[in-house]
Every structure is written in structure tokens, then in C-alpha cells.
Design brief:
By secondary structure, the chain is α/β, with parallel strands linked by helices. The protein has one domain: Alpha/Beta hydrolase fold, catalytic domain (Rossmann fold, 3-Layer(aba) Sandwich), CATH 3.40.50. It has a nine-stranded mixed beta sheet with strand order 1-9-8-7-6-4-5-3-2, sandwiched between helices. β6, α3 and β7 form a beta-alpha-beta unit. The longest helix is centred in the middle third of the chain and has 14 residues. The protein is globular, with a radius of gyration of 18 Å. The chain starts with a strand and ends with a helix.
């Protein structure tokens, strides 16, 4: 498969700023609370046309996708949920393994009477995305997976387990929560500062927006539970892979200062049709650091016939 050369793309997102602040979704979008087995999922929905399901990760919520939603809403129905335990979704005591969270997404789509979707995901959203695509392959027409590997799959994941920058994988428990309580902004600043190419690209308004959401009752505990589930996610992923690789077209997007082309190497372990793209001058937080470039890459791929 070929690597997308960004300069050759038509710049659908050129009207966007080089870096983004958190903006509200357009007034035509609706906010819904959808009950699933064990959770209530907060969902933003709007637009018209073939559906696109957008899954966020840690440090963000479904708010991160606003620039992409605005760009594609005239030709696509946008579904942007908050994962269970995050953002404005409910905080159940269990269910943070990614297979369960994928079932949340299937039930959200059932409620909305949406069958198949194009899938776009980032960070932990990739892990939920793989569990969704593997369990419900007929419901995913194509998938954009952005800058995070899959638990339990191959050398890239094993390298992350010993990477000093991923110490947070094992940072959880009552004492850890006490350390972070009231200091959510400090904790999150570490991720935005160390995992970005340019920390200044993640502005004060963006940082305050997400810090307030992660300071809500139970929010940080449940965010930690996403990491607690990684060993089980690895077991589940290997079992899903044993049933066969994904066959839908996949765009594996890595940030130049983060996973880069290794994203495609990771996804090729679980899928047969993988294209690589790299977001230049960006660290992990691609929608905050390089929204215009990211929107162009994603929109070009999901609009392919």
C-alpha cells in the first residue's frame, strides 16, 4: 500500500487554523443520551448522508472532532459520542474493556437506526475501534485509525510497555487518584506538553475545557480504568485476530513526532488493506496541533468511492 503525500492532496481544510481551540458544534447538531447495557452514552449527531462514527481517546472527549464534523456535515451524518466514563457519558463501575465499549457503540448506532459507518478514531478510540470493527465487520465501510497502537498486538505494543513516556499505563489506584484529585489540569498538562510537537499549539482554552471535564466526579477514576483494562484488551484482541484479519480499507495515520509510519505497521498485523499517512509537524494531539491537515487527510479517505 502507498503512503499519502500530504502536499498532493486537495486542501479541504485550509480554512481551518493551523492549531485549534475547542469550538461548539453547529446549532443543527443534537445532543442525545443513549442508554446501552450498563452505561448512558452522550452523543452529538448532525449532518446528512452516509454516517461517520468518531471515537476520541484519553485527554479529549467527542468535542475534539468538531473541526472534522463541520467539514463533512453537508455530505455525512456525524456521530460523535463520549466513551463510557468519559466526557458527559455516565460513570459505570465496570465495562472499560474495549469489547464492551465497542458494544456501547453498536447499541448507539442501533438506537439511531444507523447500519454501516465510516469509522474515525484516535488514541484509546483506536482500541475501541478495532474491537468494533472486529466484532461487527459488516458495520464498518472503512476506518481511519490515528496515532495509537492496539493492546497485545506485536512488537510496537510491547515497546510501549517499557517506554518511559507510558508510565501512566500503570498509574491507577486509590492513592494515585488522591494525588491527582484537584490537580487534574497539572496531570493533563503533562500529556499535552510531553506528547505534542509544540505544546503552545494546545492553547489555554483547550486545556481548561478538558481539565474541567476530567475533574468531574468519577471522571479521572474511569479514565484510569481505561488503562487498567489494557491486559484484558490484549487477550481479547488476540482472540479477535485469531478469527481473521479485517478486510475493509484502513488509513493508518501517525503523527510525524509520534508514531509516524509505525501506525501502518501496527494495523497491518490485524488488517489486509492498510494505507499509511503521516501528519507533519505534529505530535500525538493531531486534531489540536494540525486540524486543517488532519481534516484534509481524513476527508479525502472517507470520501473515496
Amino acid at each position: 500500500m502507498f503512503r499519502i503525500v500530504l502536499g498532493a492532496l486537495i486542501c479541504f481544510g485550509c480554512s481551518l487554523p493551523a492549531a485549534a481551540r475547542v469550538e461548539p458544534y453547529p446549532p443543527s447538531f443534537r445532543n442525545m443520551e443513549v442508554k446501552t447495557d450498563g452505561a448512558v452514552i452522550h452523543v452529538r449527531i448532525g449532518g446528512n448522508g452516509p454516517a461517520v462514527l468518531m471515537l476520541h481517546g484519553f485527554g479529549d472527549t467527542g468535542d475534539m472532532w468538531q473541526p472534522l464534523a463541520v467539514a463533512i456535515m453537508h455530505d455525512h451524518t456525524v456521530v460523535a459520542p463520549d466513551l463510557r466514563g468519559m466526557g458527559l457519558s455516565s460513570h459505570p463501575d465496570a465495562g472499560y474493556d474495549k469489547k464492551t465499549e465497542a458494544r456501547d457503540m453498536a447499541q448507539v448506532l442501533d438506537h439511531l437506526k444507523i447500519g454501516a459507518v465510516a469509522l474515525v478514531s484516535h488514541d484509546i478510540g483506536n482500541m475501541v475501534g478495532y474491537a468494533f470493527a472486529a466484532q461487527y465487520p459488516d458495520r464498518v465501510t472503512r476506518w481511519v485509525a490515528i496515532d495509537a497502537p492496539l493492546p497485545g498486538i506485536g512488537d510496537i505494543w510491547q515497546q510501549q510497555l517499557s517506554n518511559p513516556k507510558t508510565w501512566h499505563f500503570n498509574f491507577h489506584g486509590p492513592d494515585e487518584e488522591r494525588l491527582v484529585a484537584g490537580r487534574e489540569r497539572i496531570f493533563l498538562d503533562r500529556f499535552w506538553d510531553e506528547l505534542s510537537a509544540n505544546p503552545a499549539a494546545i492553547d489555554e482554552q483547550t486545556r481548561e475545557h478538558y481539565a474541567k471535564l476530567y475533574a468531574r466526579p468519577h471522571a479521572m477514576h474511569d479514565a484510569f480504568e481505561q488503562f487498567v483494562a489494557f491486559p484484558q484488551d490484549g487477550i481479547d484482541n488476540r482472540a479477535l485476530l485469531a478469527k481473521g484479519k479485517l478486510v475493509m480499507p484502513i488509513l493508518a495515520v501517525g503523527a510525524e513526532k509520534s508514531y509516524g509510519t509505525a501506525m501502518a505497521d501496527d494495523l497491518r498485523q490485524v488488517a489486509t488493506d492498510v494505507t499509511s499517512a503521516v501528519i507533519t509537524n505534529s505530535g500525538h494531539w493531531i486534531m489540536e496541533e494540525q486540524p486543517a491537515q488532519t481534516v484534509t487527510v481524513v476527508q479525502t479517505f472517507i470520501d473515496k468511492p
